[in-house]
Amino acid sequence: MRTYREIFALPEFRVLFLARCLTMAAISIGSLALGATTYASTGSPLLTALAMFGGPLITLLGSATVLSASDSMGPRRASTIMPIAYAAAFLLQALPHLSWGWRFAILAIPFLAGSATSGSTMRLLHDIVPPDGFVLGRATLNIAVGVMQVAGYGLGGFLLAWCTPATLFPLAAVAALAAALSIRLGVRERPGVASGKGLMTRTREVNRALLGSPVTRPLYLAMWVPNGLIVGCEALFVPHAGQAGAGYLFAAAAAGMLLGDVVMGRFVPPRHRDRTIEPLRMLLALPYLGFAFSPPLAVALVLAFIASAGYAASLPLQERLVAATGPQTRGQAFGLCSTGLMVGQAVGAAVGGALATAVGATHAIVALAATSAAITAALTPALQRSAPTRGSTVVTR
C-alpha cells in the first residue's frame, strides 16, 4: 500500500483521519488560548510553557499503573475517552476569572482520562490497515496533525489579534466533541485482548520488558528525549515572539512537520526509510541554533519550518517498534511511546521555561537545540540494535 487513494479507500481510516483532524484542531486552538491566558495573567515563561505542554506529566501515573487498558479495552471506546475529556476541560477553561492554579487543575482532566488508553488509536490503525500500509497510515495521521496545527495555531493567532483568549475555548470544545462522535459512529468495535493478569500487574510487566530491552529502549529514548527538547524550544515561542508572532511560529513548525511526514510516508521507498533516521534527527535541532543571531520573525519562521521536518524520523523509528513487538502488547507499546513523547515534551517545556526565566527565551532556545543535537549523536550507536539487518527479539508478554 503506497498511495493515498488506496488508504483513503478504507472507510474506517477516513473516519480515523477525520477524528484526528478534529482532535488536533481542538488541542491547537485550546492550548494556544491557555498559553496566552497564562502569560497575560502571570508574565511567567515557565508557567506559560507548562500550561501549553506540561499536561502530559500527569500521564505518568496512568502509564505506570493502567496503560495495558490500551490492549484490554475495545479500541473504539478507548479512542473516544480523551476527546470527550478535552471537550469538558475546554468548556471549564472558558469560565471567567479562573486563577492559574485552577486552570492547571482543569488541564489535568484529559490527561488523566486518557493516560490509560494512549495507545488505542495506533492499535486501531494497525487493525484497520494491512501490514504494508502501517507507515503510510501513520504518516497520513501525522499529516492530519500537521495540517490542523497549521490551521489551529494560524486561526488562533489571527483570532487573538482581535478577541480575548477565552473566546477560543468553546470553539476547541466543539471540535473535540465532534471527534469523539465521529469515532463512535464511524468505526466498528474490536474485542480487547484477554489476559489472566490484573491490569496493574500486566502494565508493570510489559513496561518493564519494553524499557528493559536493549532493542526497544534506545528506540524510545531516541523518540522521547531529543524531540522533547525541541518542543521545549517551541514552548518559548510566546515569550520570544509575542502572542500573534507565536501563532505564526507554531503554524510554521507544524507545516514543516507536515512536509516531512508527506515526503516520508508517500515518496521515500520502504527500503530507504531507515537511512533517513540520522540525518532527520539532526535536522530537528540544528536550525534552532540560528536563533542565537536573533533573526527577524520571517527568518525565524523559515528556521522553525526546516527544523520540524526532522520529526519525520519518528516514522521509521516507529516502524522498527512494530517489528520489535507482538500483537498482544502493541497497544501498550505504542501507548508507552505516546506517553513518553508527551512527557518528554512536557519536561522539555518545563526546562525551557525555567531556563528562559534565567537567561531569556532566545538563549534558552539555542541551549535546548544544542543539547538535543548532542543527545541525538550519543544515542546513535545503541539504535543499531534495532536496525532491520539485525535480528531482534519480539516483546510479546
TrEMBL record:
UniProt key word Repressor: no
Signal peptide positions on this chain: none
UniProt keyword terms in alphabetical order: Cell membrane, Membrane, Transmembrane, Transmembrane helix
The keyword Transmembrane belongs to this UniProt entry's keyword annotation: yes
Record's bilayer topology term: Multi-pass membrane protein
Domain Major facilitator superfamily (MFS) profile: 168-397
Subcellular localization(s) per the UniProt record: Cell membrane
Main localisation: membrane
Protein name (record): Membrane protein
